[in-house]
Amino acid sequence: MANRGPSYGLSREVQQKIDRQYDPELEQVLVRWMMGQCGGDVPQPARRDGFQQWLKDGTVLCRLINSLYPRGQGPVAKIQASTMAFKQMEQISQFLQAAERYGIAATDIFQTVDLWEGKNMACVQRTLMNLGSLAVAKGDGLFVGDPNWFPKKSQENRRVFSEDKLKEGQNVIGLQMGTNRGASQAGMTGYGMPRQIL
Question: What is the pTM (predicted TM-score) of this model?
């Protein structure tokens, strides 16, 4: 975490709202997947701050994105652990650029400071969930783990109808347009007449 004093007022409320979005159970799923995907040579984090510290230098993230590509074709060429802040942030941004090239939407990607300062770890979790979902959806055999850990991405299901079938559909009145089946005026009184209560 960065050296910042406590926040007060609206800033504190906003930070608490962001912190409530963090899911410890999701963290366990992500850790299990990342350790399996990276080959298991990565030590496991201890707690939530440990999760942030585990990812903070960017090496685990870079190994993760490289493992989703065929061997030797990973987008991050040089992965090295460093204690210098700018090197760590550079590796995180390399991961983010590679994740965007992999297919993650730019709106689903966290900012480097969200992870490095630990301000929005829920956003980091969402990015990793999207990455896992996309890796499962690609189905290229490089995903390691249980596909049920991640929500399934929707895929295109194009349908082609013949001309005869399309013309047949024009003759049917859909129920969205309403129906008059079963409608009658039995029991109706004239407009403006009082209701007969017996």
Answer: 0.70
